[in-house]
Amino acid sequence: MAHTRVDLDSACWRKSSYSNGTGGDCLEVADGFPGVLPVRDSKRPAGPALVVAAGAWAPFVAAVRAGRLGAPGAA
Known about the structure:
alpha+beta; 4-stranded antiparallel beta sheet; 75 residues
């Protein structure tokens, strides 16, 4: 797998549509990066960001929605 550095200094972040504004567990994504989707924790905007291959994002979201992903040890 090739690794490419993505400069996120000019990223325009947007919160998940599921964010309720009360400090819950929220993700922010940045659009405009061809082939990848930067993702970060909205509670830690200065923290690290993950850069996910665009083709992997939709299957990840589908797995989360279907409940196929969960915390380690969760039943």
